[in-house]
Amino acid sequence: MQEHDLSPKHSDNEYGFGRPAREIFGALGSLIGQNFGDQQLFHIFLNESDFSSQKRAKAELFHQVAARWARWWQKHRWEFTDDPAFLKVNLPPLPAPAPADSVSSSAPLMTESGTSNSVLQSLRSAPGGLVFYDLDAGRSTALSERWSNQKLLEDLFNEIRKWAAGQG
């Protein structure tokens, strides 16, 4: 079991395992050496009390990562198999969005889950740290590689702000 678990550290007869999404992405990453932003999904949970917009945001995040994997597989499938059963990805489209949430601005809101002990860092001092937290989906992520080695001038800040506004 230790040979295939996700933990780099092993002691005695212990092994590590995670949620199904974590295990599947870990296995795919080990098998083909690719990562398509899977780690941003590890702390996202669908809660019964989520608003429909939150459920949609979470579903979109999972679908985006699945679509990245599907595009990669369509290009590289022949490197792994010629079995017709595994050559086509049947990723269904996202269902139509549910009607918008209608909540009074004075309504008391509660959450069933949350995040604790998280640290968000400044864009200026976080080359690999978490700089973005999506309040709707619960996703946290580092600064995209396309921006991580650039001098953070006003134009770049505006581009990052625009990206973040579109993310949640």
Overall mean pLDDT score?
A: 79
By secondary-structure content and strand pairing, the structural class works out as mainly alpha
The main pleated sheet reads as: 2 strands, antiparallel
State the shape.
globular
- What's the total helix number? 4
Distance between the termini: 38 Å
Residues in helices, as a percent range: 25-40%
Order of helices and strands: HHEEHH
What's the total number of strands?
A: 2
Q: Show unreliable segments.
A: none
What labels would you give this structure?
4 helices; two-stranded antiparallel ribbon; mainly alpha; 168 residues; single chain
How is this structure best described in words?
- The protein has 168 residues and is mainly α.
- It is built from 4 helices and 2 strands.
- It has helices at 20-32, 52-76, 145-148, 154-167, and strands at residues 130-133, 140-142.
- A hairpin with a 6-residue loop joins strand 1 and strand 2 (140-142).
- The radius of gyration is 19 Å and the shape is globular.
- The chain starts with 19 loop residues before the first helix and ends with a helix.
- The mean pLDDT is 79.
